[in-house]
Recover the amino acids of this structure.
């Protein structure tokens, strides 16, 4: 998604918002010994929600990238397996699991949730930035376009039922309008309550999408496993004993990766649904002024998201 800012690059936008979340936390910490922390409960709660949302969005984007790479590996293994057969696979037949349109649609939805949460935190804390206002407006425009496309039954690269399409279109347009027009300035509590069903609809959309990723990932790993097994058996005695042993040892590692990936996607799906539950608790807290349940929800959401972030970090480290 292109965010046309003078000095703020697209890839810097999420990082900039994370720094602002950290700034809020540091500000509160500095004020505690002086005035018992002058940040209002609303500002504190929306900042915590924004920080947790940021983690969930990052994890989901990482999951999409990992799913695309895994599917590429599965197709490559099939290409190798069929290369010298009577029915070789045409390299031109290889297609990405998620094309550019599909990736952009998912990025737009995720960035919309991220910017929405950050907007709540910024306004509640009295933070203002013309550049981030412009970024929010650009993000909102993308969401409105996506909502219009769904309403017009235009393919967007995400498998979606007619029932989901109606709810998603409404949610995207509502979120897009909010970010474009900055309606949140009028009343943060009112906006949170009104956006609650829309956040729920978008979370369900992402959860459904992740369920499809889980199924595809399982089949991709089985494809890789079958090709590895076939390679070993076909090679037979042409492999030296040490080479054969090493190739056979790859089989349980592939299965272990399959199980770890499924666990990760299951956890991610739970985190996305917890995001909606946490937002609902946020809406309830601003109405009742009692944030005890909200704090527990945010802690649970953050712990879930942080665990997944650690998983991705371990993958990144092991691949270097």
């Amino acid at each position: 998604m292109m965010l046309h800012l003078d000095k703020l690059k697209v890839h810097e936008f999420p990082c900039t918002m994370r720094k602002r979340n950290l700034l809020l936390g540091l500000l509160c910490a500095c004020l505690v010994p002086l005035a018992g922390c002058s940040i209002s409960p609303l500002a504190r709660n929306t900042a915590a929600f924004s920080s947790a949302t940021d983690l969930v969005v990052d994890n989901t984007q990482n999951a999409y990238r990992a799913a695309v790479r895994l599917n590429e590996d599965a197709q490559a293994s099939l290409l190798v397996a069929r290369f010298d057969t009577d029915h070789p696979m045409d390299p031109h037949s290889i297609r990405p699991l998620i094309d550019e349109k599909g990736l952009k649609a998912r990025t737009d939805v995720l960035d919309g949730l991220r910017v929405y949460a950050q907007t709540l935190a910024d306004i509640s804390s009295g933070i203002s930035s013309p550049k981030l206002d412009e970024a929010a407006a650009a993000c909102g425009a993308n969401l409105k376009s996506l909502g219009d496309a769904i309403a017009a039954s235009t393919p967007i690269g995400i498998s979606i039922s007619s029932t989901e399409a109606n709810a998603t279109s409404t949610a995207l347009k509502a979120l897009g309008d909010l970010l474009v027009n900055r309606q949140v300035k009028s009343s943060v509590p009112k906006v949170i309550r009104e956006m609650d069903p829309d956040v729920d609809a978008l979370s369900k959309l992402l959860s459904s999408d992740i369920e499809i990723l889980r199924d595809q990932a399982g089949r991709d790993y089985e494809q890789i496993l079958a090709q590895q097994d076939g390679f070993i058996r076909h090679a037979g005695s042409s492999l030296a004993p040490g080479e054969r042993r090493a190739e056979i040892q790859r089989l349980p590692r592939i299965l272990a990766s399959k199980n770890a990936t499924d666990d990760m996607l299951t956890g991610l799906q739970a985190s996305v649904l917890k995001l909606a539950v946490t937002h609902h608790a946020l809406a309830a807290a601003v109405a009742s002024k009692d944030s005890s349940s909200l704090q527990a929800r945010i802690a649970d959401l953050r712990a879930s998201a942080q665990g997944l972030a650690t998983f991705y970090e371990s993958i990144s480290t092991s691949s270097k």
Q: What stands out?
A: The two ends are 28 Å apart (CA to CA).
